[in-house]
Design a protein that fits this description.
With 311 residues, the protein is an all-alpha fold. It has twelve helices and no strands. Helix 4 (102-148) runs parallel beside helix 12, helix 6 (169-184) runs antiparallel to helix 7 (188-199) and helix 7 runs antiparallel to helix 8 (202-217).
Length: 311
């Protein structure tokens, strides 16, 4: 109980310290911004280094925000980072309670802190795989709607494509998100970038480039769309081969976890008392299970990385 109370106190202090540091940084940044607006002096080197640090933070914030928008999650990057921090602190507290070693605390904190980002990438990869299968029929439908609506109004063609509701589920949601963003947000470049990220295909990047030109200049893009559809039809067989490779990676990705559960389950089935003693009560057994979980998590990250490389 004393150890649990200590860990809980450390957890609360970590959260309070984070909130205090974040509030102080925001207050300091706001005051510095006000001073810069009132002064025209050349900024020192240290201030310019601070600008570069904030630029890197904004880049990371945009990276997370684009992927959150691509999967359709309504939370913001700040909330996402705060949840990751809380999970990391929870992992540190669990490592302190269960293992009481610095390495265990560090491993559990790192795994739980990375868990939301890994889940985000996994959800994005699943959406990209589903949208990739359905992108060619969606492009054919959009090309037909573009010809019907007069060959100049891209937003009208996109609206008609969405209202037809002839596309499969995942790609229908992606096109609806694109139409909604182009109609409401006003950031055409960002909306097209998130659409390309949601599909995760080189053809989606070409499609976004064509749409961007049409939105800026109002040109007739029917010839470009027809060439894009023809090229996608010719490469359909290659896409099927890549999908089979992705399926093999996904199967191999979850195999170590299944073997661990099978191995531990058989031991508990054959000898429950000894298994409980060596896996739960013994610190060496708990450390062995933690190392196995870390290796499985590492293999999951590797499989996720290879899946995204293949997309």
């Amino acid at each position: 109980m004393i150890a649990a109370g200590t860990a809980l106190l450390v957890f609360v202090l970590f959260v309070a310290l984070f909130a205090a540091i974040r509030g102080g940084l925001e207050l300091g940044a706001d005051r510095a911004a006000r001073k810069r607006r009132l002064s025209f002096k050349r900024e020192p080197v240290r201030a310019r280094e601070g600008h570069s640090e904030r630029a890197r933070f904004r880049k990371l914030n945009a990276h997370i925000g684009d992927r959150l928008a691509a999967v359709g999650w309504s939370i913001g990057p700040d909330t996402f980072a705060f949840v990751s921090l809380l999970l990391g602190l929870s992992g540190a507290a669990a490592g302190l309670l269960l293992f009481r070693t610095f390495l265990s605390v560090l491993l559990l904190a790192a795994m739980l802190a990375l868990l939301p980002y890994c889940w985000l990438l996994l959800r994005l990869t699943n959406r990209q795989m589903a949208a990739r299968l359905e992108f060619l029929p969606a492009m054919e439908l959009f090309y037909q709607c573009y010809l019907v609506t007069g060959r100049r109004h891209v937003r009208t063609a996109l609206q008609k494509t969405v209202e037809e509701r002839r596309m499969p589920g995942e790609i229908q949601a992606v096109f609806e998100q694109l139409y909604r963003n182009l109609s409401v947000i006003g950031d055409d470049e960002g909306s097209l970038r998130r659409f390309s990220l949601s599909v995760g295909h080189v053809w989606a990047e070409y499609f976004c480039s064509i749409i961007k030109v049409a939105l800026l200049e109002g040109n007739d893009i029917s010839d470009n769309l027809r060439e894009l559809v023809d090229d996608m039809r010719r490469t359909r067989l290659d896409d099927q081969v890549e999908r089979h490779k992705l399926l093999e990676i996904r199967i191999a990705n979850f195999t170590p976890a299944l073997f661990l559960l099978l191995f531990v389950g058989i031991n508990f089935r054959m000898n429950p008392e000894s298994s409980y003693l060596y896996y739960v009560l013994d610190p060496t057994g708990r450390s062995m299970l933690l190392q196995a979980v870390v290796l499985i998590f590492g293999s999951f990250l590797m499989g996720l990385y290879l899946s995204r490389r293949k997309l």
